Every structure is written in structure tokens, then in C-alpha cells.
């Protein structure tokens, strides 16, 4: 491998790492939000996980992340709900609150979470209530999302 090939590879890797660093907070918020909505009705449905995977896989900002690591994060949060729902919920809401000062990211997060809630064909009242709580955490108006 020539020096220039190596240098080009390093440049690409660096760009990916910068994108990862820049979007890690949003990724963490999406995973936490999806877990909150999925757990809201007491049952985490496989379709809700698939919907989250699909969003992350299609998002140019997030597809740089390893999906296995993303699913590990999701499963860790989901497992925390089995241990203590109150603690898991607060931890997830704290993770979401990190993006509060970025209204564009916060609105996208709520839109994604609404989509996750509807992934199993039934966006029930428990899931809507959870998304409304997330809106309050992010200083967003739930009615802007038809909630």
C-alpha cells in the first residue's frame, strides 16, 4: 500500500469518526427514546426494534454506527426496565434531554418515536403518553405532533 492510499484511508476513517462523535448524542437519544416508547405498553415488540434499525440504517448521520452496538444499547436500556421501570425511565429521559438545545434534532427524535410507537400497527395511549412526556422533557409542544 502506498503512502497516499494509506493517507486516503486514514482521511476517510477520520471523517467517519468525526461524524460518529458529532452524532453520538443524537444516536443515544434515538435509542433511549425508542426504548421508552417500546416499553410504554409493557411489551417491546420486534416490529418496534426493526423500525428503529431501519431509521438508523437509512439516516446518513447515524449509519456510520455499528448496528450491533446500537442494538446492545437498546437491549441494555430495555433490560433496565425489567430491573426498575422508574430508574430506567429517568435514565432514558436524561439521555434524551441532552439534545434539548438542538430543536431540529429534538423534533426529529419525537417524529421517530411516533413512528416507533405506530410500528406494531397500534400507537396506543400509553405510548402516546410517553412521547408527550418526552416532548415536555425537550420543551416541545406535543400538539405539534398531533399528540
Give the N-terminus to C-terminus distance in angstroms: 56 Å
CATH topology: TerB-like
Q: What is the alpha-carbon Rg in Å?
A: 17 Å
The chain-level mean pLDDT equals 84
Count of β-strands: 0
- Total of helices: 6
Secondary structural class: mainly alpha
Question: Shape, please?
Answer: globular
Name the beta content range.
under 5%
| Largest sheet, strands/sense/barrel | none
| The CATH C-level class name | Mainly Alpha
Question: Roughly how much helix do the residues carry, as a percent range?
Answer: over 70%
Describe it:
This protein has helices at 3-40, 46-58, 67-83, 85-97, 103-117, 125-137. The protein contains 6 helices and no strands. Helix 1 runs parallel beside helix 3 (67-83), helix 1 crosses helix 4 (85-97) and helix 3 crosses helix 4. The chain has a single domain (3-139), classed as TerB-like (Orthogonal Bundle). The chain has 147 residues and is mostly helical.
Name the features.
147 residues; mainly alpha; TerB-like; 6 helices
Summarize the structure.
With 147 residues, the protein is mostly helical.
Task: List the topology elements.
Layout: H1 3-40, H2 46-58, H3 67-83, H4 85-97, H5 103-117, H6 125-137
Helix pairs in contact: 1-2, 1-3, 1-4, 1-5, 1-6, 2-5, 3-4, 5-6
Amino acid at each position: 500500500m502506498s503512502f497516499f492510499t494509506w493517507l486516503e484511508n486514514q482521511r476517510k476513517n477520520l471523517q467517519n469518526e468525526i461524524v460518529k462523535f458529532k452524532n453520538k448524542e443524537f444516536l443515544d437519544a434515538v435509542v433511549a427514546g425508542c426504548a421508552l416508547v417500546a416499553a410504554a405498553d409493557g411489551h417491546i415488540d420486534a416490529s418496534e426494534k426493526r423500525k428503529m434499525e431501519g431509521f438508523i440504517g437509512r439516516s446518513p448521520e447515524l449509519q456510520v454506527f455499528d448496528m450491533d452496538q446500537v442494538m446492545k444499547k437498546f437491549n441494555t436500556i430495555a433490560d433496565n426496565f425489567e430491573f426498575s421501570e422508574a430508574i430506567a425511565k429517568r435514565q432514558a429521559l436524561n439521555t434524551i434531554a441532552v439534545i434539548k438545545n438542538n430543536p431540529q434534532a429534538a423534533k426529529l427524535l419525537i417524529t421517530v418515536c411516533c413512528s416507533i410507537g405506530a410500528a406494531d400497527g397500534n400507537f396506543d395511549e400509553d405510548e402516546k403518553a410517553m412521547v408527550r412526556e418526552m416532548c415536555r422533557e425537550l420543551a416541545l409542544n406535543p400538539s405539534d405532533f398531533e399528540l
